[in-house]
Design a protein that fits this description.
A two-stranded antiparallel ribbon has the order 1-2. The two termini are 36 Å apart. The longest helix has 10 residues. Helices cover 24% and strands 12% of the residues. The chain is α+β, with helices and mostly antiparallel strands.
Length: 67
């Protein structure tokens, strides 16, 4: 069964396998940890977005900041 990396990380967290979360699971064929499947922080500065929040005739605008 196919699993996304995030799903595998969540399962390892539930099992308290924090070395697997940080360094990746052990690859059965090489007996080494697969770093491609380890937890990684996403570095995203985000962007500001402005959108209209009212219906026709409204002058209100909503501003969202993401950082």
């Amino acid at each position: 069964m196919f699993q996304y990396v995030g799903q595998r990380i969540q399962q390892a967290r539930r099992r308290w396998e924090f070395e697997t979360v940080a360094d990746g699971p052990i690859d059965a064929s090489t007996k080494r940890r697969d770093r491609k499947l380890a937890f990684r922080m996403i570095s995203d500065d985000g962007i500001s977005v402005v959108d209209a929040t009212g219906g026709p005739g409204h002058q209100n605008c909503g501003v969202s900041w993401s950082n």
